[in-house]
Amino acid sequence: xxxxxxxxxxxxxxxxxxxxxxxxxxxxxxxxxxxxxxxxxxxxxxxxxxxxxxxxxxxxxxxxxxxxxxxxxxxxxxxxxxxxxxxxxxxxxx
Length: 94
Hints:
By secondary structure, the protein is mainly alpha-helical. The protein has helices spanning 16-28, 32-43, 69-91; strands at residues 14-15, 55-56, 62-63.
């Protein structure tokens, strides 16, 4: 945000949806350890009932729209892909 200011007040955070899309891409690329680490780390940013906001701030606070449906859809997609990738690896011989 500092390199390309948008003129709006307040700070930007990390978009939760993008982080879950990143997990999905890592899993599809076979980078399972990285995918699992990012997924499990991201789960720590949910609130007490497992909901996510649109963004995560620099100190872990939830920013933006809450709860964010698109974030939850990408969470489901990432979890499903990671699970399928882990199952495929477990089914490999040797």
